């Protein structure tokens, strides 16, 4: 269908759509800033000490823009905030910033593409411009979500690797006579250099405990932020030990032994699965090469015989 349109008409439609989008974006940002300035002037006119209003960074502007977008319902916002917390974004403005980045990643690359075409690559056909623009739109639609998912996966892997060491340190601290809260603070200090993801989440856990939240609820939030089955099992085990009056050190020791056994079984499972995984490259790459080496002399002799 694009080939049936004239190049000039196609380019005109692209520029018109981008100009309309840019105009709507500028009007929205201007309205947001004007409302923000009016609110600041009203606050400054209140009796008492004048408020010192600072514009800290571009992140505040992006968050302000994201707050005025048509955001999803509260359930979707809660789910998105939970996913962003697993990715390491804990601020209150993380959800508006995420949606603002999604909108800007759809719009800004189009203007950069048109500007590049207009000033440096006018020989490029308009149909190719439309194709590149479509690819950029798809990248803008799915790029931020893929980035967040990749970050969640990396952080979860880092936490999974460090969790057995964290449990062992926790056992050592509790058996040395520290309380569970003090042991968690000590483990957070000791484990931070090698496993920063666990350190951040342990710091948040300690802050929740110091703020007065119950230990069970704080541990549950800790497990939800990491998204690991091991952390959920640890939270349930500590809750049951506390409710039944069992010694925390003994329960942690049993849990640590089970974790060590589970880790060994997982390593053995991966080792046994390695032979099955090697079958595909063996059949696809190595076996045809060996067959070619074996059959090549016979093929040469047959060719010489017929010649």
Q: Could you describe the 3D structure shown?
A:
This protein is mainly α. The chain has two domains: 111 residues, no CATH class; 105 residues, Up-down Bundle (Receptor-associated Protein). It is 82% helix and 0% strand. It is built from ten helices and no strands. Helix 1 packs across helix 4, helix 4 packs antiparallel against helix 5 and helix 6 packs antiparallel against helix 7. The longest helix has 59 residues. The radius of gyration is 30 Å and the shape is flat. It starts with 6 loop residues before the first helix and ends with a helix. The N terminus is likely disordered.
Helix/strand-derived category reads mainly alpha
Q: Give the tally of β-strands.
A: 0
Please compute the radius of gyration using only Cα atoms. 30 Å
| Total domain modules | 2
Q: What's the average pLDDT?
A: 76
The end-to-end span amounts to 55 Å
Order of helices and strands: HHHHHHHHHH
Morphology: flat
Please state roughly what percent of the residues sit in beta strands, choosing from under 5%, 5-15%, 15-25%, 25-35%, 35-45% or over 45%: under 5%
Q: Assign a percent range to the helix content.
A: over 70%
